[in-house]
């Protein structure tokens, strides 16, 4: 059902003031803003939570590492105690006893007697010389641990523990046990966050570090120096790092540090190692380690909310569209004449009053039409033909006046047109064209039946504001002009004259 | 409007749900990546076949390694085949060469891995095929090998620090004097360099007087050898108090040596690695205080071939790692038989 541009304009009051889609867009923007705030708050919470948890986690892991080293030193001390309790006749007998017990996770085990004679394999003797291990043994009180070195026997990084004990007649000897560096990691290993946590041994004075655990298991045993390894630390964090290392150099038991390298925030904790003076366990955890877990949860929540929101918005849109369809149908029924599709009287009166009541109103013209002898058409050809006539007549009206105004069926065979012009020349031309077109309308498709039939109309016209200033008055004026045409015998039109004189024109 | 709304919704959801995935790296296809196995010695059918895979071809250091293998092959009567890559990073090509060793039923393999981590699985596979595997110069991060002949770089770094102490003491510096050592490295990621650095620090902090310090600002040219001289000049300019400089490998050593020579800084001692013309010039000059550490790469492959033949004969080795050591070259040791022997081979 086509509505003229004028109709649309005049009936625009019947639409909702604000577009539904604008409301939806605003809603989504507000939702996005709120979601952003929520995410920011969540991230902030995660970050602060991570920092606290990372510190605790690093401390726990360094403690665990320390415990695993202590476990090894305790084992060495226990073996030394057993050796002390036994009555060996010679140092060689002690070594034979140890050699017979070759098992466990260590690389080698041996003995140093009071004369500094080393009872060990040929390869071990080379290691003692190469790494000055006797010097470390002398520091044992009761235990000392060497710095890590590469074992000739295994090719892997190892460290050697020394535990002093009494043998024979109160002579001082040293038991030594060499462990793979990996053994510390094996004892202290943890499945949780093993892809993220880095564990080093660090020498405070030289700043040398050796990796014990990390995301890449093949990097275990790799040496580095912290002066070089930490050169990319964020300049703002350098003083904090220097303070952290300063505490290590002063021999404080532990300290925590947070810093950034590139875009990654790290939490780093050191703790001292009993029996390994100058060496510290350092545990480092990237800030993203815990955040990654929480971020997964956060993203799942966001996806759930997004899906829920999408479903809700889609449901609202579907319901809105259904509502619009129903409203449109109801509007059609309330605005238009169901037979001819032009406006009904009520809608026309409302729209015309709006049009004429505006402060910026311009001149207009109201035309009243009557289809001549319509009752006879009905009687002769039937109601179906009558309906056909009305539909064709309204179509002819639309053709001529659609671009200039609103068209309405006032009832029965009466039509009214309100034009946005009062140009009599223009309107007269249109009425003449209408007259010719209406003459061509036929009640049926059967030419025989149509024989002798010619449809015509009568019309009266009145101008605004020249003839009247209200719709009611304008209708009365147009009706008066129409009356004159009817009186004169129909098939014509007439302009309203205030002096009641009419100018008649015949077609 | 409706379409726009749907588009906005889609973008919103996509933004929430999308996750980035890095595109897989494109494998560089290069027909000239390396050299397939060619005979290094006269091939005799009745002799054992030993395959040598070097890190880089057309390189003076690796030419010495190849010479060592050739000499051993001729001395001990075995066939030596050699191949390798043109870059020191193309571990995939080395993996292909190891596949060929397995296909050719090699009696033993000597290899210097371009990547200790990435090549480890292929070395493990070769070893599990029952082929004796000897690592040369560089260790792999696996236990699946028989023997490794290389410099213990931690010890080499310690030796360098010891030599630096000696050179400075030779210049009559007292324990109470301020001494400052500057360090330049060629890369921050190389395990070899890191061990030489750690060894230097280890020895220095244990043995140097309290006032003899290492400047914490260690500089690296990160693989760009051309920067070595500029960085050396910058360091000398930024640290006028500098007493000695240490280069962890050939590039930094040569960079320091050229700069000291150009600026005639005879007041600065230098210790480095390898025997470039620049460092040799300073060592030979009585005005400069210079020394360098020389690796014994000839021995690595020579002894490697000898060990491979023993393993083929079924002998078992008690050790897995042999430190071939370094020799310290300075004005005093330059004419010693040991240094001359290494210099002649290199």
Number of domains of chain B: 2
* Helix share, percent of chain B: 40-55%
Helix content of chain A: 40-55%
Measured by DSSP, the beta-strand proportion of chain B falls in: 15-25%
Compute the CA-based radius of gyration of chain B.
25 Å
Whole-number average pLDDT of chain A? 85
- Helix count from the secondary structure assignment of chain B: 11
DSSP helix count of chain A? 15
Let me know the largest β-sheet of chain B: 7 strands, mixed
Molecular structure report:
The complex is a heterodimer of chains A (507) and B (346). Chain A has 507 residues and is α+β, with helices and mostly antiparallel strands. Chain A folds into 2 domains: 16-334, no CATH class; 345-506, Alpha-Beta Plaits (2-Layer Sandwich). Helix content of chain A is 49%, strand content 21%. In chain A, the strands form 3 sheets. In chain A, strands 1, 2, 3, 4, 5 and 6 form a 6-stranded antiparallel sheet that branches. Chain A has a 6-stranded antiparallel sheet with strand order 9-8-7-12-11-10. Chain A has a 6-stranded mixed sheet with strand order 14-15-13-16-17-18, sandwiched between helices. In chain A, helix 2 (20-85) crosses helix 6 (181-188) and helix 12 packs antiparallel against helix 13 (424-439). In chain B, 43% of the residues lie in helices and 19% in strands. Chain B contains 11 helices and 14 strands. In chain B, the strands form 2 sheets. Chain B has a 7-stranded mixed sheet with strand order 1-3-2-4-5-6-13, sandwiched between helices. In chain B, helix 4 links the parallel strand 4 (108-111) and strand 5. In chain B, helix 2 runs parallel beside helix 10 (297-312), helix 7 (228-238) packs across helix 8 (250-263) and helix 8 (250-263) packs across helix 9 (277-284). Chain B is elongated and about 65 Å long. The termini of chain B are far apart. The chains are: A alpha+beta (507), B alpha/beta (346). The interface between A and B is large, with 44 and 43 residues.
């Amino acid at each position: 059902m086509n509505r003229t541009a004028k109709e649309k304009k005049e009936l625009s009051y019947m639409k909702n003031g604000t577009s539904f889609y604008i409301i939806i867009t605003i809603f989504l923007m507000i939702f996005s803003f709120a979601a952003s705030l929520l995410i920011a708050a969540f991230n902030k919470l995660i970050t602060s939570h991570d920092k606290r948890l990372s510190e605790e986690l690093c401390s726990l892991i360094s403690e665990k590492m320390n415990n695993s080293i202590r476990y090894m030193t305790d084992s060495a001390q226990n073996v030394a105690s057993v050796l002390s309790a036994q009555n060996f006749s010679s140092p060689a007998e002690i070594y034979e006893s140890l050699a017979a017990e070759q098992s466990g996770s260590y690389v080698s085990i041996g003995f140093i007697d009071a004369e500094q004679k080393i009872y060990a394999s040929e390869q071990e003797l080379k290691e003692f010389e190469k790494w000055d291990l006797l010097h470390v043994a002398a520091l044992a009180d009761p235990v000392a641990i060497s710095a890590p070195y590469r074992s000739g026997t295994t090719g892997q990084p190892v460290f050697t523990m020394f535990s002093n004990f009494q043998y024979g007649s109160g002579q001082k000897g040293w038991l030594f046990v060499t462990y793979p560096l990996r053994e510390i990691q094996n004892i202290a290993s943890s499945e949780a966050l093993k892809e993220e946590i880095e564990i080093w041994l660090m020498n405070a004075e030289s700043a040398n570090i050796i990796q014990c655990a990390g995301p890449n298991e093949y990097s275990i045993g790799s040496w580095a120096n912290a002066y070089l390894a930490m050169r990319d630390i964020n300049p703002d964090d350098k003083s904090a790092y220097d303070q952290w290392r300063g505490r290590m150099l002063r021999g404080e038991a532990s300290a925590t540090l947070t810093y950034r390298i590139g875009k990654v925030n790290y939490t780093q904790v050191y703790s001292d190692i009993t029996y390994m003076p100058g060496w510290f366990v350092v545990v480092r955890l990237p800030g993203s380690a815990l955040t990654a877990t929480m971020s997964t949860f956060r993203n799942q929540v966001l996806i759930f909310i997004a899906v829920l929101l999408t479903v809700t918005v889609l449901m609202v849109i579907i319901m809105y569209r259904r509502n619009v369809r129903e409203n449109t149908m109801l509007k059609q029924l309330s605005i238009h004449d169901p037979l001819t599709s032009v406006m009904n009287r009520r809608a026309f009166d409302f729209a015309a009053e709006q049009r004429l009541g505006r402060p910026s109103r311009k001149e207009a013209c109201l035309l009243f039409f009557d289809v001549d002898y319509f009752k006879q058409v009905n009687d002769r050809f039937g109601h179906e033909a009558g309906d056909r006539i009305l539909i064709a007549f309204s179509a002819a009206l639309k053709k001529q006046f659609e671009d200039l105004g609103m068209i309405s069926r006032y009832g029965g065979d009466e039509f009214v047109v309100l034009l946005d012009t009062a140009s009599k020349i223009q309107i007269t031309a249109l009425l003449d064209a209408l007259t010719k077109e209406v003459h061509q309308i036929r009640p049926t498709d059967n030419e025989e039946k149509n024989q002798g039939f010619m449809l015509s109309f009568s019309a009266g016209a009145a101008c605004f504001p020249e003839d009247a200033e209200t719709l009611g008055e304008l209708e009365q004026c147009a009706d008066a002009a129409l009356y004159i045409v009817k009186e004169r015998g129909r098939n014509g039109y007439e302009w309203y004259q205030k002096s009641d004189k009419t100018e008649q024109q015949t077609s | 409007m409706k379409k726009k709304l749907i588009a906005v919704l889609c973008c919103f959801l996509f933004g929430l749900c999308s996750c980035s995935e890095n595109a897989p790296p494109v494998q560089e296809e290069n027909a000239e990546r390396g050299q397939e196995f060619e005979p290094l010695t006269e091939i005799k059918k009745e002799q054992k076949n030993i395959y040598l895979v070097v890190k880089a071809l057309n390189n003076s250091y690796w030419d010495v390694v190849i010479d060592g293998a050739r000499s051993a092959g001729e001395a001990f009567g075995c066939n030596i085949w050699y191949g390798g890559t043109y870059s020191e990073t193309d571990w995939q090509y080395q993996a292909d060469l190891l596949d060929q060793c397995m296909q050719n039923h090699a009696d033993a393999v000597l290899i210097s891995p371009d990547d200790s981590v990435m090549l480890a699985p292929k070395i493990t596979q070769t070893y599990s095929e029952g082929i004796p595997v000897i690592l040369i110069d560089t260790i792999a991060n696996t236990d699946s090998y028989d023997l490794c002949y290389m410099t213990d770089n931690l010890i080499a770094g310690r030796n360098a620090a010891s030599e630096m102490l000696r050179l400075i003491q030779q210049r009559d510096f007292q324990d109470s004097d301020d001494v400052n050592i500057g360090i330049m490295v060629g890369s921050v990621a190389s395990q070899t360099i890191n061990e030489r650095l750690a060894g230097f620090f280890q020895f220095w902090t244990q043995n140097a007087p309290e006032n003899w310090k290492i400047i914490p600002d260690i500089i690296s040219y990160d693989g760009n050898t051309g920067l070595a001289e500029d960085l050396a000049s910058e360091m000398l300019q930024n640290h006028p108090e500098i007493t000695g400089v240490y280069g962890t490998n050939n590039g930094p050593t040569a960079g320091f040596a050229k700069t000291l020579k150009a600026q005639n800084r005879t007041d600065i001692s230098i210790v480095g690695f390898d025997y470039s013309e620049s460092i040799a010039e300073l060592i030979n000059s009585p005005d400069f205080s210079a020394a360098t550490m020389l690796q014994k790469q000839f021995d690595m492959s020579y002894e490697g071939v000898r060990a491979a033949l023993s393993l083929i004969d079924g002998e078992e080795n008690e050790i897995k790692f042999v430190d071939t050591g370094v020799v310290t070259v300075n004005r005093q040791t330059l004419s010693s038989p040991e240094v001359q022997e290494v210099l002649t081979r290199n």
